[in-house]
Protein: DUF2304 family protein
Amino acid sequence: MLVTVSAVLLLAVIVVLLVRKNGLKIVHAAVCVLLGFYLAGSNMAPTIDDFSTSLSDMISELSF
Structure:
């Protein structure tokens, strides 16, 4: 759950920065949000969740 909340907040900050700085249109951001909702309800959702969990585990194991 903590990883999910952190990922959502990070992605929200990235979208806000892209809208403000790089000229991403609000309509484009809304389409990306809708795509995310539809992907979450699709058969690909468990695969995407497994990939993001594996990626976060890999990043957490890196020592700096």
Observations:
- Helices lie at 2-21, 26-40, 45-61.
